[in-house]
Amino acid sequence: MLLVEDSPSDIRLIREALKDAPLRIRLVIAHDGVEAIDYLRRCRSATGRNPDLMILDLNLPKKSGHEVLAEVKSDPDLKSIPVVVMTSSDDKDDIAQAYNLNANCYIRKPGNFAEYEKVMQAIEDFWLSTVTLPHQVPLYSERVLPRTA
Question: How would you classify the pairing of strands 28-30 and 83-87?
Fold first, then answer.
Protein backbone atom coordinates (compact mmCIF):
# COMPACT_ATOMS: atom_id res chain seq x y z
CA MET A 1 0.00 0.00 0.00
CA LEU A 2 1.31 3.44 -0.92
CA LEU A 3 0.42 6.25 1.46
CA VAL A 4 0.94 9.71 -0.03
CA GLU A 5 0.82 12.00 2.99
CA ASP A 6 2.96 14.89 4.20
CA SER A 7 1.65 15.18 7.76
CA PRO A 8 3.82 13.26 10.26
CA SER A 9 0.92 13.02 12.72
CA ASP A 10 -1.44 11.53 10.11
CA ILE A 11 1.26 9.08 9.01
CA ARG A 12 1.74 8.04 12.64
CA LEU A 13 -2.02 7.58 13.17
CA ILE A 14 -2.37 5.48 10.01
CA ARG A 15 0.64 3.32 10.91
CA GLU A 16 -0.73 2.79 14.40
CA ALA A 17 -4.21 1.98 13.07
CA LEU A 18 -2.73 -0.65 10.71
CA LYS A 19 -0.37 -2.14 13.31
CA ASP A 20 -2.77 -4.84 14.49
CA ALA A 21 -4.33 -5.51 11.09
CA PRO A 22 -4.95 -9.20 10.43
CA LEU A 23 -3.31 -8.85 7.02
CA ARG A 24 0.38 -8.08 6.71
CA ILE A 25 0.42 -4.72 5.00
CA ARG A 26 3.62 -3.30 3.59
CA LEU A 27 3.14 0.44 3.92
CA VAL A 28 5.31 2.69 1.75
CA ILE A 29 5.24 6.42 2.51
CA ALA A 30 5.65 9.19 -0.05
CA HIS A 31 5.79 12.63 1.57
CA ASP A 32 4.90 14.68 -1.51
CA GLY A 33 3.42 14.27 -4.98
CA VAL A 34 6.74 14.15 -6.81
CA GLU A 35 8.04 11.42 -4.49
CA ALA A 36 4.83 9.44 -5.07
CA ILE A 37 5.11 9.50 -8.87
CA ASP A 38 8.84 8.68 -8.71
CA TYR A 39 8.12 5.70 -6.43
CA LEU A 40 5.35 4.41 -8.70
CA ARG A 41 7.57 4.53 -11.77
CA ARG A 42 10.50 2.85 -9.95
CA CYS A 43 8.23 0.19 -8.48
CA ARG A 44 6.65 -0.57 -11.86
CA SER A 45 9.97 -0.82 -13.69
CA ALA A 46 11.66 -2.88 -10.94
CA THR A 47 8.89 -5.36 -10.20
CA GLY A 48 6.42 -5.10 -13.07
CA ARG A 49 3.71 -4.51 -10.46
CA ASN A 50 1.97 -1.58 -8.89
CA PRO A 51 1.00 -1.12 -5.26
CA ASP A 52 -2.29 -2.83 -4.43
CA LEU A 53 -3.74 0.45 -3.19
CA MET A 54 -2.86 4.12 -2.91
CA ILE A 55 -4.16 6.36 -0.13
CA LEU A 56 -3.74 9.92 -1.35
CA ASP A 57 -3.95 13.23 0.47
CA LEU A 58 -4.88 16.19 -1.76
CA ASN A 59 -2.90 18.90 0.04
CA LEU A 60 0.66 17.93 -0.80
CA PRO A 61 3.86 19.88 -1.43
CA LYS A 62 5.60 19.93 -4.84
CA LYS A 63 2.70 18.28 -6.70
CA SER A 64 -0.88 18.33 -5.42
CA GLY A 65 -2.96 15.24 -4.86
CA HIS A 66 -5.16 16.22 -7.80
CA GLU A 67 -2.07 16.41 -10.02
CA VAL A 68 -0.87 13.01 -8.78
CA LEU A 69 -4.31 11.52 -9.38
CA ALA A 70 -4.49 12.96 -12.90
CA GLU A 71 -1.05 11.59 -13.74
CA VAL A 72 -1.76 8.14 -12.32
CA LYS A 73 -5.14 7.75 -13.97
CA SER A 74 -3.84 8.93 -17.37
CA ASP A 75 -0.89 6.51 -17.40
CA PRO A 76 -1.73 3.11 -18.95
CA ASP A 77 0.73 1.36 -16.59
CA LEU A 78 -0.62 3.00 -13.42
CA LYS A 79 -4.30 3.69 -14.01
CA SER A 80 -5.49 0.37 -12.57
CA ILE A 81 -4.18 1.27 -9.10
CA PRO A 82 -7.17 1.84 -6.82
CA VAL A 83 -6.84 5.33 -5.33
CA VAL A 84 -8.54 6.23 -2.07
CA VAL A 85 -8.45 9.99 -1.58
CA MET A 86 -8.25 10.66 2.17
CA THR A 87 -8.02 14.35 2.92
CA SER A 88 -9.17 17.01 5.34
CA SER A 89 -11.10 18.87 2.63
CA ASP A 90 -14.86 18.57 2.45
CA ASP A 91 -15.03 21.19 -0.31
CA LYS A 92 -17.52 20.06 -2.96
CA ASP A 93 -15.16 21.19 -5.75
CA ASP A 94 -12.33 19.03 -4.36
CA ILE A 95 -14.68 16.06 -4.15
CA ALA A 96 -16.05 16.58 -7.67
CA GLN A 97 -12.56 17.07 -9.13
CA ALA A 98 -11.25 13.91 -7.43
CA TYR A 99 -14.07 11.81 -8.87
CA ASN A 100 -13.72 13.49 -12.28
CA LEU A 101 -10.08 12.40 -12.20
CA ASN A 102 -11.25 8.81 -11.50
CA ALA A 103 -10.57 8.50 -7.78
CA ASN A 104 -12.05 5.23 -6.54
CA CYS A 105 -13.40 6.84 -3.40
CA TYR A 106 -13.17 9.99 -1.30
CA ILE A 107 -12.89 9.90 2.48
CA ARG A 108 -12.64 12.84 4.85
CA LYS A 109 -9.79 12.36 7.32
CA PRO A 110 -10.98 11.13 10.70
CA GLY A 111 -10.83 13.46 13.67
CA ASN A 112 -9.30 11.12 16.25
CA PHE A 113 -7.48 7.81 16.63
CA ALA A 114 -10.58 5.70 17.23
CA GLU A 115 -12.08 6.99 13.98
CA TYR A 116 -8.78 6.37 12.15
CA GLU A 117 -8.90 2.76 13.34
CA LYS A 118 -12.44 2.36 11.99
CA VAL A 119 -11.64 3.97 8.65
CA MET A 120 -8.43 1.98 8.16
CA GLN A 121 -10.22 -1.23 9.12
CA ALA A 122 -12.94 -0.47 6.56
CA ILE A 123 -10.31 0.25 3.88
CA GLU A 124 -8.49 -2.97 4.71
CA ASP A 125 -11.70 -5.04 4.79
CA PHE A 126 -12.95 -3.72 1.46
CA TRP A 127 -9.86 -2.97 -0.64
CA LEU A 128 -7.52 -5.69 0.61
CA SER A 129 -9.93 -8.50 1.52
CA THR A 130 -13.19 -8.16 -0.41
CA VAL A 131 -12.40 -6.85 -3.89
CA THR A 132 -10.30 -8.55 -6.53
CA LEU A 133 -7.33 -6.33 -7.30
CA PRO A 134 -5.71 -6.12 -10.74
CA HIS A 135 -2.65 -8.24 -9.85
CA GLN A 136 -4.96 -11.05 -8.69
CA VAL A 137 -6.50 -11.51 -12.13
CA PRO A 138 -4.67 -14.24 -14.04
CA LEU A 139 -3.40 -13.18 -17.42
CA TYR A 140 -4.16 -15.63 -20.19
CA SER A 141 -2.60 -15.52 -23.60
CA GLU A 142 -5.09 -15.07 -26.38
CA ARG A 143 -5.58 -18.16 -28.43
CA VAL A 144 -8.37 -19.62 -30.42
CA LEU A 145 -9.52 -22.95 -29.15
CA PRO A 146 -10.55 -25.54 -31.73
CA ARG A 147 -14.26 -26.14 -32.05
CA THR A 148 -15.54 -29.39 -30.71
CA ALA A 149 -18.25 -31.19 -32.56
Answer: unpaired
Please state, in angstroms and rounded to a whole number, the distance separating the CA atoms of residues 102 and 83. Answer: 8
The full set of domain ranges for the chain reads 2-128
Q: What is the CATH number of domain 2-128?
A: 3.40.50.2300
Q: What is the pTM of this model?
A: 0.82
- Signed CA dihedral, 1, 27, 105, 16: sign only: positive
User: How confident is the model over 18-51, as pLDDT tens digits?
Assistant: 887 666 778 889 999 999 999 999 887 777 778 8
Instruction: List all residues 6 or more positions away from 10 whose beta carbon is below 8 Å from its beta carbon.
Output: 57, 109
Residue 25: C-alpha distances to residues 29, 36, 70, 86 (Å): 12, 18, 26, 18
Q: Residue 17 and residue 113: Cα distance in Å, rounded?
A: 8
